[in-house]
Prior knowledge:
The protein is mainly α. The protein has 13 helices and 2 strands, in the order ααααββααααααααα. It has helices at 2-31, 38-64, 101-122, 129-151, 174-192, 213-232, 240-269, 274-288, 297-320, 329-343, 353-384, 391-396, 398-403, and strands at residues 161-162, 165-166.
Amino acid sequence: MELLTTNNVWMMVCTALVFFMHLGFSFLEIGLTRQKNTINILFKNVFIICVGLLLYYLGGFNLMYPGFEDGDFGFLKFAGFGITPPENGMTPEYASGGYTWWTDFLFQGMFAATAATIVSGAVAERIKLGAFMIFTILYVGLVYPIVGSWQWGSGFLSTLKIGEAKGFYDFAGSTLVHSVGGWAAMIAIILLGARIGKFSSEGRPQAIPGHNIPLAAAGLLILWLGWFGFNGGSVLSADPASTSLVLVTTCLAAASGGIGAFVLSTILYKNYDLTMFLNGILGGLVGITAGADLMSPNEAVIIGLLAGIIIIFGVALVDKLKLDDPVGAIAVHLICGIWGTLAVGLFGDKAGFDQFIVQGLGVLIVGFFCLTTAFAIIFTLKKTIGIRVSEKEEIDGLDSHEHGMDAYPDFRINQH
């Protein structure tokens, strides 16, 4: 019982850290976008947390962990509405003494909201709030838990065998959380179109500076702290050896990701770009998330360094494709999410050609499902209620038109 208490307390601390990440996402997004849309972005982030938890309570948890039985293909099953605990839900028999049923629900519920938060940053400054809220309800309520059930719910991905590989592997969600949000972000950006002024008449990308880079930096550091819970809690116990290794690999990948992005961006663009530095750290964190428990410190540094390099080329690719991603969500969460998933087959305890193939197949399966469902949801919204605000609303700012509020009502420029 003492072990259950220790493990459970650690899991609750990690739950709090993952919750704290939502403040980090909020700060990062508002810092990298314009002052006139601050209230709108904060509103979306608060909505995501509230509705995400309620949807996970209503059915998401039992859709993600439906109890697939032997012989089930493991694609879709629903264990019913609500979160009534089983008989052993508060005993060491549940989850091998790692935590209780209630802690399990809350920890996984914090993960559920993250997928929609990724989309929020990508579509910032031009999406209709009502359309975004409907998308969030459908994507977090249905798509995320279904994909999660394929792996974490012991579905077909977890049993996918090719040669010596015994199942797809995603420790804390490079694919199941980050790329699930990243695929939807890409579809949303394509269907929305770029912000006014993002591309010149000749098609060249033009910078639209964020209004508060110190806030963006604070958001990044909060996210890094939150990743201690995101990855550390995914050990699903307070096991000293496993937990400490995961925290070490997570931190080293973050640091090397930042250095990789900073050095390459300085070489290519001849300036010290803080936003690239910040996104490089995020890329390293996303990249290590799939295999944080499998990697040595040396391998974590390599994975993070390559993720930071990938960020620079990823951001350039998004611009080249004339896609407008205000916070770099596609490069960070989608491209580095794919990289981190594939890295499990290249580095660490499971490295091997067969595992690499299984990892790649998992990426393709999840990508196809997320692209299809996200397109169906967002395209339907576009053709019915519309997904983009008017030109006047975009120029004036969403805060005044959709909220009737100003994030900084007492702030005046050059009033002295």
